[in-house]
Amino acid sequence: MKKRRAFKIFYSVVWALFLREVQVLYGSKKLGYLWAVVDPMIMIIVFSIVHSSLMKGASLGYDYPVFLATGFLAYNLFRSIVFKSMEAFNANRGLFVYKQVKPIDTIVARVLVEVFQISIVAMIFVFIGWYFEFDLRVENFNMVVLAVAWFVLFGFGLGVLFGVVGTFYENFKKIVTIAFMPLFFLSALFYTVESLPQQAREVILFNPVVHFIELIHGSYFYALDTAYVSFEYMLYWTLVPLFLGLYFYRKSERKILSI
Amino acid sequence: MIELRNVTKYFTVNGKKNYILKNVNLTIKEGVNVGILGRNGAGKSTLLRMLGGIEFPNSGVIYSPKTFSWPMGLAGGFQGSMTARQNIKFVCRVYGKSEEEAKDTIEYVKEFAEIGDYFDMPMKLYSSGMRSRVSFGLSLAFDFDYIISDESLSVGDESFKKKAKEALMKKIESSNILLVSHSMGDLRKICQAGIVLNEGEMKFFDDISDAIEFYHNINRERSIGNRSKKSASSSIYCSDGRVFDNMMQAAQFYKIRPYAIQQAIEKNSGSLVYLKRVFYRDGEKPKPYKRWENVEDNTLICSDGIIFESIDDAVSFYKERLPKAEVTYEDIAMALKSENKLAEKIFVKFYYLKEFQ
Q1: Chain B contact present for A6, CB below 8 A
Q2: Residues A59-86: pLDDT tens digits?
């Protein structure tokens, strides 16, 4: 067996894992793919109806369903990255007999699968939006891409940290699951920070997810801006979990392998 | 070459450290096939996985410049919703094989496994025999310096076993093997050196025959030790309402060995599987009947009531109790295979406990 360079091994393992996960998704639950489209679709329809009955035709300067779609898709991506990463070690335990497969590779592969999957869903949404003649124009496309990529990195860092800690403390995962429950309502997904009263605004800005969603919304829509986004705050929230996660991972990689 | 330097490995059970290796220093020379022996739970598989670099010691270093296989014949790395072809492709990708090489590997495994159309069906539809055919073939399709194998020679039906063994023998002409097995015959045939694990101590033997003899001695001492531990004189109650003055009387009545009753009381809270009755001592409370807990593929039950972890256990037991009968491994293996299950030298029948319960 010939020796290979570390990066080459990493690359081929992640690629193999990626294809495997996609195959499993296709093979066992075709509904899984469908659900990735249907779930945000239902949300968008429900919230749009509620919203239009409340607003009674007042103009926002942007299409509310598009606003919902961008927020929900980004949030779903983030959420599933965190949860899939958290479970990656357990789900792939059988593969650690292949020495090349390092636990962290399984997380990287899962993140890529999620990004791949949401990209397809986003394309379907763009097509639907175009068909129904929604206003899909993007103010700053590059910034939106950057924000989503940053959001992915944030999810990855949390996923690694939660995955490592959760390997040793099973209850920790339950706490994370519970902590995520109210996040849907507290992440500026179907409203803007601007539209909130002053006190609520101050509180909700402690939630880092709000900054990411606001950055995406503000960069996408001409009528919105990113006045409440703090890059510094986002940076802390990205780097600290990422650093801690990778540090703990390095320390306990062998333990994770042999549990 | 494999080098172990100050290697210590333990598992913590209920706050107590259970040692498998304590400060072991050892060099396994190049080109030597090593057999690993020990009772169930002695840590054979853990040692094997550590040598293969998938598990790690608590302290110390295991060093080798060689490449190691995954545990041979292992089916745990397969994804049930994927076909054998897809699963094999995955392993090829992980090990950096090119598309061309992967194609060859797939062809090889397909030919070796002989499972026909199942090869392109999801693996969750496979029988365990079909799974091991694929996984055994996959292991053979790769070239490693060391193959690590954990009891994998005892899977599948007879014809497959024969084929697998032949293929493996051919394979180890160019590779070495580290083998965990309860079959002394296989160990003798394949390995030159041996490691015996026993209660946290490891012994290395340059000659596998010495290792096997040492292992038999441990088993013998252990069964004598067990026997003298508790007095056999107190009254014995049986769940069918009968009472006996001592274990011997009870054993005579039910035509079993006294040791069977002792084994039931000590290891299975009184339930004697062969009679499906519960025994208990004077002053104890009768418990409900339960089945034997640690049933593995090799676990045997004898018509004299005793349960053995393996054929080798049975052989060393009868060698010690009935030295004149000169029971051999083959005698019991033959009994297990034949229709009437009778081992003629000692006039008892043997069954696999898995099938018996």
Answers
A1: no
A2: 778 899 999 999 999 999 999 999 999 9
